[in-house]
Amino acid sequence: MKxxxxxxxxxxxxxxxxxxxxxxxxxxxxxxxxxxxxxxxxPKRKGKLREMSTDEYENEMRIMYDKQFQEVHFASLINKxxxxxxxxxxxxxxxxxxxxxxxxxxxxxxDREKMVRSRNIFHEYFRNCSTNGRHxxxxxxxxxxxxxxLDNRTHAQVKGPNSKLLGEAQFEFIKKSLMPDKEFTxxxxxxxxxxxxxxxxxxxxxxxxxxxxxxxxxxxxxxxxKNVMFLGGDIHRNGFQSPMLLKELLDIVKxxxxxxxxxxxxxxxxxxxxxxxxxxxxxxxxxxALLNFDKNGVKISFNKFDxxxxxxxxxxAETTNLANQWLIExxxxxxxx
Length: 337
Known about the structure:
The protein has eleven helices and twelve strands.
């Protein structure tokens, strides 16, 4: 089984996205698009979007989706994925309103109306890939894998030590959905857990570090399952981050619902990040990755911008080797001697 994943496609900056054909050539069984499937606020026009009526906003969003879905190379790939029932996606901030939008943050009543429209349009263009009805978080069983797609926007509050990112209902859904007997557990998020375009840890990061309560809760839940992988987008680069001890990462007091022993050993899951399939930054554009599952486990390959070609990508050997070495060392993949 092969799962391709990427994020961040800007049809305005890149009307010809030739490199989708490289993903198609791998004949993946599934394609995961990890957010920012369109960019409503590019070029920078946040003020204009705020001023639009709900109908004007919906019309503008449909224009953007039509342009992306009609791009010839993207259309060829997703039509094959639709035929396999293999296209799944995340609704992130640029699909939602504009950069860093928060569903329970400082939004107006008009913004909330636009959010409802954008959610409905997302379901329409991705053909109701959500298996959870009106919600944008959902669960899939794919052979030996169980996969959770998170909604990092609808219930997100203004950032803070005790602020909520997912909301209680989504955490309850995660708890009820995950099964202990699956060989692999894959969590897909629009945000990364710890990585950022700006700084690796705190600062101007837009990631789960801004919501330490939820990061602890998610990490604790996932620590009960084997072979967990967190797939993230957002940051316009490829990346791999091995698990990190939360007590060394976060400047917070141990939650009272965790024992000292558990807190001292609690880690984030490993992060596999691919973002920037079509973004106007030459050093990161065209990033995508491929998970390959076989009888020995899972391996991954990352691909990136090829400076010698205008129409293709090349292997990101450094990130690929780093991630696969970790997968082998931690028995996610066991080579035959």
